[in-house]
What we know:
The longest helix is centred in the last third of the chain and has 23 residues, at about 545-565. The chain is of the alpha/beta class. About 20% of the residues lie in helices and about 25% in strands. The protein starts with 14 loop residues before the first strand and ends with a helix. The strands form seven sheets. It has an eight-stranded parallel sheet. Strands 3-5-12-7-8 form a five-stranded antiparallel sheet, with helices on one face. It has helices at about 130, 265-275, 295-305, 345-360, 380-390, 430-435, 460-470, 545-565, 565-575, 595-610, and strands at about 15, 20, 25-30, 60-65, 65-75, 80-90, 110-125, 145-150, 165, 170-175, 180, 190-200, 210-220, 220-235, 245, 280, 325-330, 365-370, 400-405, 415-420, 440, 475-480, 505, 515, 520-525, 540. The protein has a domain at about 15-235: Immunoglobulin-like, CATH 2.60.40.10.
Amino acid sequence: MKILSVSLLTLATLAVGVCRVRAGIVDVWALGESEKVLRYQDNHPAREGSLVWDGSVIRLRGLYNEILGFQVIVVADSVGARSVELAVTAPANKDGQLIGGQGTLKYGPSGTIEIFSQHYLHVARSNEKCWFWGSTSVPEHLTGWFPDALITADARPGSGGMPLDIPPTAAQVNRRQNTLETIPRRATRNQGFWVDVHLPRDRSFSPGTYNSTVTIFSAGRIVKKLPLEVTLLDAYLPDENHSTVWLFGSVGENSLYFPGLSEAQVETMLKHISHRHRVDFTGGSAVHSSRFDESMMERYSGWLDGSAFTPAMGYRGPGEGHGEKLFPVGMYGSITNTVMTGRDAVRAESDKWVNWFERNAPEVRYFWYLVDEPGPVQFPWITERAGWVHGNSGPGSRLPVFTTRNFTPELADAIDLWASNKGVDMDALPGARGRGGDIWFYNGLRPLDGTVTLEAEAVDFRVKGWIKYRYGLDTWFLWEGTQWRHNRQGPKGNLHQRLFSEPATFINWTMNYANGNGIVYYPGRMPFYPEEDRGVEGLFGSIRLKNIRRGQQDYELMWLAAGKAGSEAVKNIVWDVVPRALEDVSRDETLPWPLRGNQFDLARDRLLDLIVR
């Protein structure tokens, strides 16, 4: 997949009016990572300025090996604009060193610059009663055109590739139905662009200020230039993640979207982009839903020991040489009723898994995913099967048992690892860890923590890292990132999603639905709906994915700052932003953490001061 880099010569744009040529771009402004600017939003508070944007200059500040993102919003008048494109020159310091300069490898040690266009989805209605408990925790906007998918420059023309057109605001073409849908005429229309600046991994690059220019073109003409200042601080963001984001997604089923690639190539693509965003994409490979197989584990072992995340295997970027930290055995209970069907079978199978991991991957946290979201009627069954593991006289007794449920005292001796989507019992956490287990959290519901739907603010994904640090939690589990086919427990279960045109991605038989739930990646190919095919043999990330990464990087900054200035100094900063979350928040309470990304950015800046002081 070609990445638009600083070496790409950009084209430009014309805005065509009726019988005459006119300038269609009326404003250009910038903002940070943790915001969403809707397509027709003309009153976003960040437009007046933020830590990243003072109204004229974009300013970024970060560490070696950190990735800094920012957004540029191009505003067109009601006539629209054509062939709009954005370019970024390689940031240079006074000695001529270039971040992401000419001749460097993609994601190389000198850094990289990536540019994406933002794709918008129209949310006509929100299921706020399900995802936002209490009227005080709903997001700022429940309907409208929300940006999410970030499209690479090499996508097909008219499908987000560059240059792109900004259509007029008077009408919107529905290509699938070949109709013209009239919408209210508005004065302006936004088109967002996302820029990622990968700061150097090579410490030979001097700390200090690197200067660049962001240029917006229109039909070969320069519409606007924005100065960009990148300050590289003299500290290194760790390659290792000291907290975990566990993201599930299918590999085999999603390989159908890329008929020109093998399943192994699709798996590599998914794991590499996830690792670069400090996410463990695990649980969706065949090895996670099969009985123990030595040869399958040997093929998978590179993801665990980190050898599959090296330049020799085509990977560059954060986390080089570091493997995945989690391995679910029998994802979603897939082998519970097919392989682990009796006491003897459970003990024989658990012996094999424990022997392999203790011999080959002792640092990886592996566990049997016994059952998903069990109810009280299943408690006796859970106790029996967990007892078969714990009562094993062989090594299999050390196989942890996992389920997605709030900590339940009746199952305290049966379940080792818990993941709750309704808060975390902090009183039970020390006891669970004392027994060798742990309590995690997953998905998200406001106001307990950030929710996962499309209409939520961008900070809903960033705050996960802050909540983990705030409460000393190890892992956040996200149910799905590639739900490109509708969920099977609903009326659309056999249909592939229209990911680029229909926002409702989860619908069950009671017509409970969610917009964007289960999606943080979008496919570059769409064989099932050719009109949505972007023509790219690769993956597109999203604003939600970028904010997962931002939260993970924030956590590492907290970890570094605590080592430099002490945990109390970090606590003062983190607690100011996230005073309460999870079970400390009542369902009808006002959201206790900020909706605006700038408040997180200001706190992050204080963490940077602690690190380099």
